[in-house]
Every structure is written in structure tokens, then in C-alpha cells.
Amino acid sequence: MELIRASLAVVEPVADRATAHFYALLFLRHPEVRSLFPAAMDVQRDRLFRTLLAAARGAEDPAALRARMGALGRGHRRYGTLTGHYAPVGECLVQALARYAGSRWGDDTELAWRRAYRLISTIMIEAAEEDARTSPPWWQGEVVRHERRTRDVAVLTVRPDQTYPFRAGQYCSLETPWWPRVWRHYSFASAPRPDGLLTFHVKAVQAGWVSNALVHRAAPGDVLRLGPAAGAMTVDHAAGTDLLCLGGGTGIAPIRALVEEAAEHGGPGRSVEVFYGARHAAELYELDALRGLAGRLPWLTVRPVLSGAGPAEGALTGELPEVVGRFGPWSGREAVLSGPPAMVRRGVGVLLRMGLPAERVRHDLVGERASG
């Protein structure tokens, strides 16, 4: 690990050049793998290389590494990744590192990296092979309903071609027919339903290929591809723990799903507080539905929060994390946060300072969830 850290310290400041060299080697020597990647490499270009570097750095924590790389191996099945692809990637990784690690590279360092990559790839391959016994690499999903809630937000209802297992609080990756091999992550906006339909909230972001296609172009009858469910922002409802939920913007989607799931498991003796934030009242597109749920569920409280100027009738004002900090105490609760990364980070900080233990704070700020 000392050898890996020392070489990383040299490589990371020039990671852009190392990444470019890595992909140049990979595509030149193994052109058969080029078709696994999107035509435009703006997001994917950094993701694989940086993920491998981060995994190698974390190799001294076997349990965490197995969980992280196992999920990555299962997820890579949707790209068409095969066992035979791992060895070429490893060779090109080592050669790119050797080129940019300078005097920190030697026989011992190379051996350390090869051992780390062998561990990483073995975990990913084993997870993918195990997953293949019970699950397809992807599902086809037909859009059956497309509702525009605001100028930039749409709610999509999708019918998968076969049973799709997931939990409220999780997310999946979506690929559109307009941008092949470009996948983006979206949270489920409802708990599992008897009819098997899936719901997603999508906000079109600037220069976001997939999000703009889903909001402005998708229509009933279009077919998407769905990767397997992922994410650990799930709740053990059997414990009956009181919940505190912070949802900002379309981050309200998994919060809505968790509330539905809590209702299915019964709510007597339980309290669920939802703080739903946006800049302007018109952006609280899910507020009426949440208030409808609160009217039927006496254990559910919904508090809208507005941070921008304009009418705020019935809403609290201020930044969502700070507003939550004015209430409480929240001891004894389990907190779930979803929304813009800056909001989630501030919210986590507020809750920790209020004494909520870190193990009771859940969110899904994972690096591979690039917007777009």
C-alpha cells in the first residue's frame, strides 16, 4: 500500500494525461473493446481510470473493497463487459502508470499494482458471474407515461419487459436509444408496485444528453434500457425507526418511494418527517402528492422549504439544511438525504453537528452518478 500511495501521489496531478494515454493504449492494442464505450468519451474518459486508482488505494480494506467492486462488476455487465476484457485493461493500466509515475516506478511498485489489480478484477469477475446466474445484464423498459411537471422536469413511468427487483431508496442506470452506451443514474420514485411499473423523476440539465432526451424527447412507446438496481439508501422498516427525510429538487423521488414503502410496512408508533426543498414554489412539483399522503398517514409530516425569493405561503424559508437544523432534536432517528450534492453535504454536516451518529445518516453521493 505504501508503494501504491507513493506512485499515486506522482500520477494524480497529471491524471488527465495518464488517462488519455491509458485509453490510447487500450483502443490501439485492443480495438475490439472500443465498442463497449460511448462515441463521446467526455464523462467515461475519466471514470474508469479514476475508479481503478481509487480502488487500488482502498485495497487495504477488504470488506469495503469487495462491496464497492462487487457492485461495479455487476453493473459492468450492462456494457457487455466479459471476463476476457479485464486482462487487457490491467496491462494498459500498468503501462500508463509506469509512464507517468516517474522515479516512483520500479519492479516492486509494478508488482504491488499488479497484485492490487488482480484482487480488484477477481472481485468484479466473481460478482458478475454470480449475478449472471439470476439476473439479465439489462432490462428493456417501455415508456408508458410521460408527464411534464415543470419546464425542465418530467416524470416517466416505465414498464420493464420482465420482473425487475429493487428497493425504495435505490437507483438504476438508464440508456436511451438516442445516445447508445451513455448511461445515467436515476432514483426510483415509487416503491415496488403490484403492476411492476417503475417511476423516475428527471430534470434536464445544461448539456445533459440523457436528461434532455428523457425530458424533451421521450414519449410513450419509446424503449429504454435499464441496468440493475443499485445503492444502499434503503431502510429497515421492520425496526420501525423514526425517519427524517431531506429531499431537494428531484431528490424528492427516492424520498417519495421510501414513504410509500413505510406505509406498506405500517406506521403506528412511527414518525416520518419530510423536508422538501426548492428555490421557488413552482419547483415543488411533488408537494400536492406528498400532502395527499400526509392527509392519509397520521405519522407523516411534510414541510416545504423555499430558498429563493417569491411567494412562500405555507412554506418555511431558507436553505434546506439550515431549516432542518432549526427543528429537532433528531436523536434516535434515521436520516435520509437526496438531492444536489452541495445540499446533501451541508445537510450531513448539520445533522452530525446536532449529534446524529454517522451510521444513522444515509445518502447516495457516489462518484459515478454523473449528471446528464
Given the helix and strand composition, which structural class is it?
alpha/beta
Question: How far from one another are the termini?
Answer: 35 Å
CATH fold description of the largest domain = Globin-like
Strand content: 15-25%
Compute the number of structural domains. 3
β-strand number:
12
Largest sheet: number of strands, sense, barrel closure: 6 strands, antiparallel
Helix content: 25-40%
SSE order: HHHHHHEEEEEHEEHEHEEHEHE
Family: In the C-terminal section; belongs to the flavoprotein pyridine nucleotide cytochrome reductase family.
GO molecular function: 2 iron, 2 sulfur cluster binding; heme binding; nitric oxide dioxygenase NAD(P)H activity; oxygen binding; oxygen carrier activity
Domain FAD-binding FR-type: 136-236
Cofactor: FAD; heme b
Brief write-up:
The protein has 372 residues and is an alpha/beta fold. It is built from eleven helices and twelve strands.
What does this structure look like?
Helix content is 39%, strand content 18%. With 372 residues, it is an alpha/beta fold. The protein has 3 domains: 2-132, Orthogonal Bundle (Globin-like); 139-226, Beta Barrel (Elongation Factor Tu (Ef-tu), domain 3), CATH 2.40.30.10; 237-362, Rossmann fold. The strands form 2 sheets. A 6-stranded antiparallel sheet has the order 4-3-6-1-2-5. The longest helix is centred in the first third of the chain and has 26 residues, at 107-132. The protein is globular and about 65 Å long. It starts with a helix and ends in a 10-residue tail after the last strand. Residues 136-236 form the FAD-binding FR-type domain. Keywords: 2Fe-2S, Heme, Iron, Iron-sulfur, Metal-binding, NAD, NADP, Oxygen transport, Transport. GO terms for molecular function: 2 iron, 2 sulfur cluster binding; heme binding; nitric oxide dioxygenase NAD(P)H activity; oxygen binding; oxygen carrier activity.
